[in-house]
Specification:
- By secondary structure, the chain is mainly α.
- The chain has one domain.
- The protein has three helices and two strands; from the N terminus they run αββαα.
- The chain has helices spanning about 1-10, 20-50, 55-75, and strands spanning about 10, 15-20.
- A two-stranded antiparallel sheet has the order 1-2.
- Helix 1 crosses helix 2 and helix 2 (about 20-50) runs antiparallel to helix 3 (about 55-75).
- The longest helix is centred in the middle third of the chain and has 28 residues, at about 20-50.
Length: about 80
Amino acid sequence: MTDWIKKALTRRTKNREIPPDIRLVYGVKFAVAMTLCLSALEIAHLTFLGKWNSEIFAAITGLTGTVSGILIAQKT
């Protein structure tokens, strides 16, 4: 999983590639994993309780925005 994240965060200039800091790679990896876990939790909540949980959805939205922001900011 780290390889595609590292590739996505690598900056490319005319002459060279600048790899991202390993802490950034681990942070994005953790945020993606937490987003997947929260999505599974929301699905379980809908399946067993039959209700939408807005707090879980807010956490999913926040993590997705964080990962997207990191990926976009790292490229510019």
